Amino acid sequence: MTIHHQDIPSYILESKKRCEMLGMDPNTIPNTHYISNDELQKKLIDYNKLLSIFDTFAEKFIQTLNGMPLILIVTDDKGTILKFNGDSTMTQSVQQLGIKPGALFTEETNGTNSASIALSLNRPVEVIGIQHYHRFLQKTACYSVPFEVEDKSPIRGTISIMTFVDYLSPLLLTMLTTVVGSIEREFILKEKNNQLNILNQIVTDNAKTAIIQTDVHGEVTKINSFGEKLTGWHKKTIIGKKIEKLSPIAENINQILTSQQRFTDIELRFTCEKTGYQTVCLLDGRPLYDEKGRLTGAFAQLKDMTDRYEAEERINYLAYHDDLTGLPNRRYFHKVLKEKMERTKEHNKKFSIFLLDLDRFKMINDTLGHEKGDWLLVQVSKRLREYLPNNAELFRMGGDEFTVILNGLSNLSETTSIAEGIIQLFQQPFAIANYEFHISTSIGIATYLCSEYDADTLFRKADTAMYRAKEQGKNSYFVYESTLEKYLFEKLTFEQELRHAIENNQLELYYQPQISLCSQKIVGVEALIRWNHPTFGLINPGDIIPLAEELGLADTLGEWVLQKACHQSKDWQNHGFTPIKVAVNLSPQDFLQHALVERVKQVLIETNLEPQYLEIEITESMTMDVDHAITTMQALHELGVQIAIDDFGKGYSSLNYLKNFPIDHLKIDRSFVNDILNDHNDVKIISAIISLAHGLNLKVIAEGVETKEQALFLSNLHCDQAQGYYYSKPLPVNEIEKLF
């Protein structure tokens, strides 16, 4: 993003001028000034209540923006950093620069920064990229919001977001402002509860909570002004009235009077009788006694949590919905799909998913521009919403892809009827900028019948079907099918036939080249197993490996692949081909084997292959046992074997392990590459991964590259290598050798 001089706020220009007058060198990292540990501990005690509330909101905020590398920073009114919360890799990086708790982060010490400006102006501020004075901060985007609360004395400071400049968004400042406001309100509520006892709240008409008291018979005896405002009930008409007539608190008050229960933080919703405004409240209630311990009535206080509730609702909405169309997004689709599959297993019902891809959308987008393209996507979403039945859920996956979950199916004809209706829906042209354009859609359909596979497999089947629809001429649908004969074969005869296949040489390895984006030469190959079955033909790894794992044959299969790949690599060298690395995928069972390292070592000895020409690929999920993962990878690394993380960005652990694991390559998952030309978020994610990987001296391989445009785009992002059908599909030995 380019920031022109005239776009830079005056307060930033003034700050930079002051930095120049102080003689600061923007090209250096300034020496950090720290307060003493005793001073820091005193400040932490002074801010303890606020920091406790901050932790609660920060955790929710970071979960909502899962996948975005950011940290939240709290400072006091002098710019002293008190606390960090957020991405561990980014936290470690900034701490190495001296930015950590106890550091004085001021304009005088660190130049132009958002926290100092927010404190001086007393309003939310953003400082983006080159707006920072010092260059070491110019790869970051920072957003700061000041706060002020009353404890024993006024407590002031800032809460800030720091992220990479690729993730800059004005929405971050809006969300942070909402969160800081919620923290201030939560602090006030906690302080009120700590400072005021029950009698003070009853007699204090200015309490910021609604107070209602009844006698032992359930008749209202007191209500304060805030209670009148919140409920719309007037004191003159409510006093003496039976609580049973006052919804929604009647049930709780009656329980207090009949069983002397206490309630804490019970969520209730009030609709004000005067204004119709709905309020979300937390109810605290308890019985009241006289000096002899006899029950005299019930006391209830209602805390207005509407602002906090609406802020959380807004954050959740933004996390799970597409900004452009308002539809639920890819993240929400996968969440719903997994939940639905679990329920389907329990109730033995079935549902289908549709994957829609707009035909010729790229041409329209490139011809008329992204603004018109966005308008078209909005119109498509409107048509689909209006057409789909009540038992269908619509999602936008990104780019020009939509998905539909169709629930409660009785037969296949119901599914295909809806698919045909969607095809017909696009027969009517779309009017864009005084032009009429005819577009169509290709639909892939997969039906979930039982617990035979997971959500990723179901989605992949729909994706496969969608591409088949495109192959058949577009503007059509295709239903994924798997024959009963093949299913029975896999379940009943797979184990015996797979063992025979290894013995009878029915298995073979195909190799897919990995291309240097700089030299455009082959620098490696990935070994992929194929089963040349005499009856069913060539069977791919997606059908072999899951059943092999289920039947306990993964170890046998993995050892065969490792031996075969290393032998082939050495054979190529013996025939005069330039030595290149061969990548072998490990299954979770392989990786968890304690004898894995010894097995790899033995295969290298037997095949006489130098270890640097073997690369082991593992997935993120295999690293959940961190101690075992570190020990195993370190031992492989000491052998000289290269290690790659496959499908990077898709697993549970994100970037956390990069600093701990001895790895050489990251393979960016194909799901990020698919929409790289259309989805700005995918571009930012890939760019961030490449930047971080290069910072750790790792090389990056992009998987699933299918077009020249994708390859050029990745090259411009300084991605090191690429792999995919654009270069070559996986090939048998005699065909891959022709590419060397």
Automatic annotation (TrEMBL):
InterPro entries: Biofilm_reg_signaling, EAL_dom, EAL_sf, GAF-like_dom_sf, GGDEF_dom, Nucleotide_cyclase, PAS, PAS-assoc_C. Residues 349-482 form the GGDEF domain. Residues 195-248 form the PAS domain. GO terms for biological process: regulation of DNA-templated transcription. Residues 264-317 form the PAC domain. Transmembrane segments: none annotated. Residues 491-740 form the EAL domain. SMART domains: EAL, GGDEF. It comes from the Bacteria. This is EAL domain-containing protein. It comes from Lysinibacillus composti.
